[in-house]
Amino acid sequence: MTQSGQEGYAIFATRERPSFFPAGSPRHSMPASLHGAFVALACLAFGGPAHAADAFSTDWAMSPKSEARLVAAGGRLAGFEIKLAPGALTYWRDPGDSGVPPTFDFAGSVNIAKVEPVFPAPKRIKEADGGEALGYEGGVVVPMRVEPVDSAKPVTLALHASYAVCEKVCLPAEARLKLTLPEAVGSPYAGGVDAALSAAPTPVQPEEFGKLGADGSDGWRLCPTSDGQAARDLFVEPPPGWWVTGAPAPDGEGKCFRLTLREKPKDAAFPVSLRLTMTGAAHPVETTVAAPAP
C-alpha cells in the first residue's frame, strides 16, 4: 500500500539543484502567510525532547538535516511530522524541476483499509541563487486520515516514508515508523494535527474557484473568484506527460493568471484535467477543472 505526491506540475517551477537523486524531467515541477503556521506546527505544537516517545507518538527517526516521527491525534487520525534543520526545506506533493516528492508506504499496517495523506498548502521559498522551491521550511505535519477495516478494533499504522531534504544539496531521508493509534482522547498532538488540517486547501467546486477559459492557441486564462484584495499564489498539477506553466496575466491587474500549454502527450485529447491550488486568500482552496482545447 504505497501513496505519494501526485504526478504533476506547479505553476512556479523550481531550479535544478545539485542532488544525490537522479535528475527528473526538466519539465517536472513540483504563501508566505502560512509559513508561521508551518513553523509553529513543527517547532511548538510538537515540541519537546527529541528522544521522547509516549503512547501517542513514536521515537524520532533521524536523518541528516531532519528528523521525523508519527503522532496520534485520535483513533482515526495521525500525523507525520518532519522537523528540518535551519535553512533546509522539504517538498510538497509536487516537488519541482528536479525535486523528489514524499512517498508513503503503509505495508505492514494492521486493520487499515485506507490511509489518506493531507498536505498543507505549500509556499514559495526563495533561494540564494534566485530560484524558488515549493514546499516547507522549518518543518511540516502531514495529517493522515485512517480508514480501518474493522471499526471495532484498533489500528496500527506502519509507515515507511521517503522524502528529500534540500539546503545547498539535496539529501535523501527516510523514516520507518509504527504506531498503534490509541482510542483514548486527550492526545497532546491533536491540536497540532488539527492545525495542519486547517492549513490544507479546502476542496471547492470549479465555479467557486474561478473562471477558466481558452486564451489564444496555447493556453488558458484563469480569473479567481473575488475575495477582497488578497494577493494570490496559484499551483497547477496536470496529468503525467503534460507540461503547463503559468504566471499572472499581463493585463490581469494581479487578479488573473495566464496558463500556457508547453507540451502534451502525442495524440492526447482535450479536455485535460488540471488540479489547481490557490493560496493567499482567507483560506487555501483547491479544485479540479476540465480545461478545453486552447
Which CATH architecture of the largest domain is right?
Answer: Sandwich
Quote the distance from N terminus to C terminus.
38 Å
H/E element sequence = EHEEEEEEEEEEEHEHEEEEEEE
Low-confidence stretches: 6-52
Calculate the mean pLDDT score and round it. Answer: 82
Shape: globular
Roughly what percent helix? under 10%
- How many structural domains in the coordinates? 2
Query: What quaternary form is this?
Result: single chain
The CATH topology of the largest domain is given as Immunoglobulin-like
Give the DSSP E fraction (strand runs of 2 or more residues): 35-45%
Quantity of strands, as a count: 20
CATH class of the largest domain: Mainly Beta
Number of helices: 3
Roughly how many Å is the radius of gyration? Answer: 19 Å
* Order of adjacent strands in the largest pleated sheet: 2-3-4-10-7
Q: Could you say which structural class the secondary elements and strand pairing correspond to?
A: mainly beta
Main sheet attributes: strand count, strand direction, barrel closure: 5 strands, antiparallel
CATH superfamily of the largest domain: Thiol:disulfide interchange protein DsbD, N-terminal domain
State the gist of this model.
The chain is mainly beta and 294 residues long. 9% of the residues lie in helices and 42% in strands. β8 (123-126) and β9 (132-137) form a beta hairpin.
Lay out the secondary structure.
Layout: E1 2-4, H1 32-45, E2 61-63, E3 66-74, E4 77-84, E5 89-91, E6 103-105, E7 112-117, E8 123-126, E9 132-137, E10 139-148, E11 156-166, E12 170-180, H2 190-198, E13 202-203, H3 206-209, E14 210-214, E15 219-224, E16 233-237, E17 243-248, E18 257-263, E19 272-279, E20 285-291
Parallel strand pairs: 13-20
Antiparallel strand pairs: 1-6, 2-3, 3-4, 4-10, 5-9, 6-11, 7-10, 8-9, 11-12, 14-15, 15-18, 16-19, 17-18, 19-20
